[in-house]
Recover the amino acids of this structure.
């Protein structure tokens, strides 16, 4: 801040003096609280946006709906949330950010012993075959989830094999959850 002076001379010898006064207006102090945890399961659907000061700013990022974060709209992976506040008196603005990783918790859910079932072909062009071991004597729940954790297919098997038709789904990565009693397996399935 201060007063700055500059002089100029034209080719005809005329002098000019320019005087400018500058003042420093500090940007507002903006603080966005972090999310309560570093990761959140996409299956929880929504998460509240963290508190920010001063009030009256705007949030930016994928999946923001009102004062919540739509986890499915935001998608899997690391998501950054930015809070920007503009002081109406000075026109100065500032921002702060917080990050959270949205994860598919089905993969964390593996408990008990593995089922040792066969899932083929993988990658597949549309038909997926599941063969349970001959030692399996319990009803088996089979569920298919898309990459965002949404359930697309669910069926309880009483036989030792099943076929799932995937032709109606777009190419991408899917997750097949197979559960028999306390044993759970989750397999990544690639649809071409």
């Amino acid at each position: 801040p201060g007063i700055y002076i500059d002089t100029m001379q034209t080719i005809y010898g005329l002098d000019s003096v320019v005087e400018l006064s500058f003042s420093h207006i500090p940007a507002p102090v903006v603080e966005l609280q972090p999310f309560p945890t570093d990761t959140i399961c996409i299956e929880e659907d929504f998460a509240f946006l963290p508190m920010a000061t001063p009030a009256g700013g705007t949030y930016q990022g994928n999946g923001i709906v009102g004062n919540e974060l739509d986890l499915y709209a935001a998608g899997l992976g690391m998501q950054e949330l930015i809070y920007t506040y503009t002081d109406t008196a000075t026109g100065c603005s500032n921002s702060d950010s917080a990050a959270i990783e949205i994860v598919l918790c089905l993969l964390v859910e593996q408990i008990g012993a593995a089922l040792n079932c066969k899932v083929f072909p993988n990658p597949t062009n549309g038909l997926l075959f599941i063969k349970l071991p001959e030692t399996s004597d319990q009803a088996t729940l089979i569920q298919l989830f898309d990459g965002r954790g949404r359930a697309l297919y669910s069926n309880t098997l009483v036989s030792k094999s099943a076929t799932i038709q995937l032709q109606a789904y777009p190419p991408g990565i899917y997750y097949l959850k197979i559960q028999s009693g306390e044993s759970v397996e989750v397999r990544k399935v690639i649809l071409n």
